[in-house]
TrEMBL record:
GO terms for cellular component: endomembrane system. The keyword Transmembrane helix applies. It is found in: Endomembrane system. It catalyses: L-cysteinyl-[protein] + hexadecanoyl-CoA = S-hexadecanoyl-L-cysteinyl-[protein] + CoA. Belongs to the DHHC palmitoyltransferase family. GO terms for molecular function: protein-cysteine S-palmitoyltransferase activity. This is S-acyltransferase. It is a multi-pass membrane protein. Residues 94-122 form the Palmitoyltransferase DHHC domain. Its EC number is 2.3.1.225. Keywords: Acyltransferase, Membrane, Transferase, Transmembrane, Transmembrane helix. It comes from Theobroma cacao (Cacao). The DHHC domain is required for palmitoyltransferase activity. It comes from the Eukaryota.
Length: 227
């Protein structure tokens, strides 16, 4: 069952930023440096357009792909002695139960307020045309400088934020953790050290195995790049 599309301010801001950066890069920067009718200009425009299309497609997949749902018939095996301790509620010692979905949570599942259901391995942005030529050139230069500044103000924080986000998720993939599991692991590590024990993430299979587990395409784990 696909989710219906509705207005989202963060998505609108991201799409607007991508469109603005693309327009400035192709029709202002590349056009002024090389010219869009020259071979270097066409080559740079084609390459940047390919990168922009790839970004938009991946972002589209990310916001439109159904993350799945927990079957309503799911029931935990209470007699299984290998149930991880972190799959027990922190308070009360009961099995993890979602009050909003009214069913038990399987391992590594958390409730998503956007999807309104539990999700497995959920991972948590006109000028006048009548001026004289000299004044028009001055206004054109000013508008180009304004575009440079605005584009730079968008690109610098976006580049820093995306670089940090990329490094963070590479670390999580190599550890086979979700963002929520990382924060839960910090508390579990503190409790283990307090009790004189050593905590180890139960799903950590080693960097190579973690990487292949996340990106391998099989019946239960679609390709990472399409999620």
């Amino acid at each position: 069952m696909k989710r219906g599309f509705s207005f989202s301010l963060p998505v609108t801001v991201v799409i607007s930023a991508i469109a603005f950066i693309y327009f400035c890069t192709v029709f202002i920067f590349i056009d002024r440096w090389f010219g869009l009718m020259t071979s270097p200009g066409v080559m740079n425009a084609v390459v940047f357009t390919g990168v922009a299309v790839t970004c938009v497609l991946n972002y589209g997949f990310a916001i439109s792909t159904d993350p799945g749902r927990v079957p309503s018939s799911f029931m935990p095996d209470i007699e299984d002695s290998e149930v991880p301790i972190h799959e027990i509620k922190r308070k009360g010692g009961d099995l993890r139960y979602c009050q909003k979905c009214s069913h038990f949570k399987p391992p590594r599942a958390h409730h998503c307020r956007v999807c309104k259901r539990c999700v497995l391995r959920m991972v948590l942005l006109v000028g006048s045309l009548t001026n004289d030529s000299q004044n028009d050139e001055q206004q054109s230069a000013d508008s180009f400088r304004t575009a440079y500044v605005i584009c730079g103000l968008l690109l610098v924080p976006l580049s820093v934020a995306l670089s940090v986000l990329l490094g963070w998720h590479i670390y999580l993939i190599l550890q086979n953790k979700t963002t929520i599991e990382y924060h839960e692991g910090v508390r579990a590590m503190w409790l283990a050290e307090k009790g004189g024990n050593v905590y180890k993430h139960p799903y950590d299979l080693g960097s190579y195995e973690n990487l292949t587990t996340v990106i391998t395409c099989n019946e239960t784990a679609p390709l990472l790049f399409l999620r």
